[in-house]
Fold this sequence. Notes:
31% of the residues lie in helices and 28% in strands. By secondary structure, the chain is α+β, with helices and mostly antiparallel strands. Strands 3, 7, 8, 9, 10, 11, 12, 13 and 16 form a nine-stranded mixed β-sheet that branches. A five-stranded mixed β-sheet has the order 20-19-21-22-23, sandwiched between helices. A three-stranded antiparallel β-sheet has the order 4-6-5. The longest helix is centred in the middle third of the chain and has 21 residues, at 167-187. The radius of gyration is 25 Å and the shape is globular.
Amino acid sequence: MRLSRYFLPILRDTPKEAEIVSHRLMLRAGMIRQQSAGIYSWLPLGLRVLNKINAVVREEQNRSGAIEILMPTIQSADLWRESGRYDAYGKEMLRIKDRHERDMLFGPTNEEMVTDIFRSYVKSYKDLPLNLYHIQWKFRDEVRPRFGVMRGREFLMKDAYSFDIDKDAARHAYNRMFTAYLRTFARLGLKAIPMRADTGPIGGDLSHEFIVLASTGESQVFCHKDYLDFETPAIDTDFDSVEGLQGIVDKWTSLYAATEEMHEAPAFEALPAESQLSARGIEVGHIFYFGTKYSEPMGATVAGPDGTPAPVHMGSYGIGPSRLVAALIEAGHDDGGIIWPDEIAPFDIAVLNLKVGDAATDGACEQLYKALLAKGYDALYDDTDTRPGGKFATADLIGVPWQIIVGPKGLAEGKVEIKRRADGERELVSLEAALDRFKGKAA
Ligand code: ATP
Ligand code: MG
């Protein structure tokens, strides 16, 4: 992408309305624009990051055996009357009437709709297990939308729904998602710790919130420090192995970890003082087994091996990709701006032309830019006639992991500069060496 032809509305001043660093940086870097309280447009740079997060989420969902669908944002109230949640949901639900005065709503979640899909097609245990997910916008009329996309009213959610013949099978479905979540957050460069969460009236121990530690987090959390060093499940994890996945989940639930609602002070305080970690956290994912809560009232039954129909056992599993954009910035930034993990960065490499109009500089930049594109990189070429200081500031602000800085002075000695955004390390190398350094995106 040539910056001169891109749409990157950078704000030079710090927006006053933004209370936390991720919100400030997203506005300054031209990633989002607020349209109403808690409702945002995603501008090109923000959308790139959001799509990259979705790609990782999708890959790990697919790897675990979940199948992608796409359900609508607008739902009929009738389904929610069947489950009893239409009246129970309260003011967070945006209720709408269509031209025929029918009650509709903007979906805050999709248990009812996916249960309706399931009951329309699946009748036998032979078609189980099944896990359907989608990545779709949700609307919740939050009392206090704040912190930008961290707590929006309209926000993106990956929500998956598992269907199983009994509780044991459902437990395995839960473990699959638990493991997929560990892999997903690790790939995003985040340390997310699964913490016991409230299961409400259904009870049981099958609900975990995945929490990223950050000083600006909205929840107070308590856990054992050793979680920070736990190993992520490998890429070749066998998602069909019941014992294997149970082993992973047992390990990741073996130490104390709880949010404030589930906190048991005596158990936490019994840990050695140096192992106690009490911090603020951001909820980036939430998984939940709820048995037959929806399948029973909505008549989603499957015939078992003996032919007797029984309500299917379900779980739901949410991740917030739009919140994750903010969480990633909370976890990765410095005074200069955002520091993206390589896989999520909106661009892989920025080429900064320090003297547009100088034939040698233009030529070297064009050569670099085209070679990087040919090697499959998302390259951003700053070919604007801004002064060098502004170019450095923009490149740092938007957090591109690598910068190749090209100016007439260096070129006179045959050199360009490579800068690593994360630690600011710089290196003077020949143009050929710079080209050779970036071997290709897959390499
Ligand atoms: P919270 O406790 O933060 O209000 P929740 O428990 O209501 O969230 P879930 O229903 O568990 O949220 O939703 C699944 C995921 O969707 C959350 O883990 C979070 O990542 C994301 N999410 C929920 N509400 C919002 C929101 N208002 N803005 C952005 N992301 C959200
Ligand atoms: Mg939750």
